[in-house]
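As a representative case, the lines below give one protein's residues and fold tokens.
***
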Amino acid sequence: MRVYYINNGGENGGPFTIEELKKEALHEQTLVWFQGMDDWQYAKNIVELKPFFTVIPPPIQRAIPKPETKVPIASSTIYGIKKSYFFLAIAFLVIMAFVLVLTLIQNSKRAEIELKNKETEFGNVQIELQQKESIEERIQDEIQKRIISENNNTRRKDSINARLTQIKSLIVDGKNQLTEAKKSLSDAEDFKLLRSENTKEEQLKSYQADVDNWKREIDELENESNRLYLMLETVH
């Protein structure tokens, strides 16, 4: 009995009998060899194997129409919207979101800058108020000083004027006393009653001392009056 060897492009298979070949996956291009052949041949070229590849039509049966299989067509819409419009809308939304975020950031920075400006303005106002308060305090201090100075000057003027009035009265009184002392001295010089020279000399010295004292006192009062008038001119 003839045995066959086959090769389907991989390892050789066999040996097989003709009946066993029917069970193998044999096709026209399968290489087949058996003893007596010079070289491998395609299965379709071997006479006894040709019936393996003869197509026997099936018996005629009533044709049953097969349901048409619709090839799914790639959808050109997303959620009922044309893809180009959908992606355009997505791009628009992304741009709007970016613009919104950028606007929020800018608004936040603007608000922060405005807050800092307000804080700076508030600080400047506080400084100005403090400066004004300081100036007002200095003005009030200066006013108080002037009031005190004016009061002091007024009191000083009043004191000087009172002293000048007193001095005038003292000078008038002193001049009257000087006149009396000069008269007493003159009377003592002209007195003709009997008296010793020592007594006369002592009387004359006494009256002369009174005259000198009143002159000196009047001079001192007049000098003091002159000084007070000078002081009065310097008091504003």
